[in-house]
Specification:
Number of strands: 22
Helix content: 25-40%
Bound molecules: 3-acetylpyridine adenine dinucleotide
Strand order of the largest sheet: 1-2-8-7-6
Shape: globular
Radius of gyration: 24 Å
Largest sheet: 5 strands, mixed
Oligomer: single chain
Structural class: alpha/beta
Amino acid sequence: MTSRHRAPRRSGAVEHYDVVVIGAGVSGMYALHHLREMGLSVRVYDGASDVGGTWWYNRYPGARVDGPGSPFYCYTFSEELMKEWDWEETQSEQSAVLAYLEHVADRYDLRRDIQFETWVEDAHYDEASQRWTVETHTGARAVAPFLICAVGALSTANMPDIPGIHDFAGETHHTGQWPHEPVSFEGKRVAVIGTGSSGIQAIPEIAREAAHVTVLQRTPQYAFPAGNRPITPQEMAEARRDWDTVRAKMRAHPGGFPFDTHSRSALQDTPEEREALYEKLWQRGGFGFFLNGYTDIAISEEANESMADFVRAKIREVVRDPKTADKLMPDHFVMTKRPILENGYFETFNRDNVTLVDLREDPIERFTPTSVVTRTGEHPIDMLVLATGFDAISGSMLRLDPKGRGGLSLKERWKDRFHNHLGLMIAGFPNLFMIHGPGSPGVFYNMPLGAERQLDWIGDLMRHLRELGLGAVEPTTDSEQAWANEVSGIANATLFPRTDSWWTGANIPGKPRYFSAYLGGSLYYQRLADVAARDYEGFSFEAAQSAGEAEAS
Ligand code: N01
């Protein structure tokens, strides 16, 4: 593990590496950089034609960071990288995040080890050689002891199965597979299905250009002002001034951002005090409601109701037509679907070229080549935008469907539940690692930082194996059960599992319905450190089948 940037071995058409990584998004890029720095030979495959993953695919109009945002949605492993990249807005546009990732790829010369436009069709483990073989759509094969699945928590598009949808003759675009050529809405009648983060970002942009927009809404949503604004040079300087302290603060914070945490319950305040705080956070915009608000919004029904009432009143203030405002009233626990940041979404319903259809009262019956037909009538359209989200968290792993010991398929293993330990490994699938998979904090944490921290831990485990002459590691089923209990125990103490959402898998028909993310925030990384300190308690190891061969791999 000391030689730098080890070259792969080739035998016939098969290439041999130390590690194969699937995915060249935020996580796969860091996997390549980190493991290559450890001296390992790494091959990355990605179906896209360049780096970026989710930021490469999601280029629909209005796409921006809709979390706490810049300048802290970034890699933290290099102070130089932090110092040389200027972020311009707090909620960076998709193109700005992609430009940053392209810069990272250039700076660390990542592309030389990434094979683009290459779809991995199969991955299977061979117990005798303790190796994974991946096969790509071109028929090429690569063999490696370690397989890292950086396949994205939000990358397998959810395509609704609606009668006649394939007969629709106009352009159809899913927000997560948006074309690279410009899409013109000018003079067109556009229907949008879906009012999650993507729909709520895209709809105001589409409405500015289109002749007419029909918004087909299944669940009304709470959305908060994005509060996007330029980042001043002084703020960038402040973020960089004492990077070690900022980085330490990010690592200590439950969500991975360098902000102070608060510990005040909504129920400790009077209704007037609550209202004053909500109003202040509303005016400020951004993720303040969740980072600087009350701590019990996702725990106490009463606290939750106080915030939900406030947001509903705000929607009513903005939307002029009371009937439209009624349809826009969310009725689930606020925060228990992914909070959304908006830029003029509710105002859009005051335009005379926008119609809202409430699918709960007026469901879609079918598509024709030129229209969408709901129970109460027909809406002629020229274009269909599917903002229908993703088979999230577990979906991309299941699409890959790796085969572990004895040819066991992941689809079979995960039929009823996404069994895993620490959100990283699966019993029966030795040496396979997931990034941001089920059982990890994933989408509840600053994702670039979360990927770094998971991959640093994985790198340490690989080093441990090599140092002790071990060839394979996997969790025990007992440790998987204990982890499942821990993940569910935390989630069940909150209101999150009580709402249908992509967090609970309820958006995908037939998917196991339970809350699979670890909600303990940065405690997760303490758990990882503790497991490593206790000689990887909960994992079983196998000796390398032959020390010589393991070293040669
Ligand atoms: O997907 P969603 P998304 N018929 O699942 C509706 C991240 N993100 O792409 O709520 C009718 O949230 C569905 O209805 P319902 C962010 O974490 C990040 O918007 O299931 N409607 C819902 O309204 C986000 O949470 C950024 O009842 C159907 C919508 O489609 C996550 O990605 C930007 C339907 C899907 O909403 C996913 O967001 C955007 C059907 N058959 C997203 N099927 C940035 O940071 C689904 N729906 C840049």
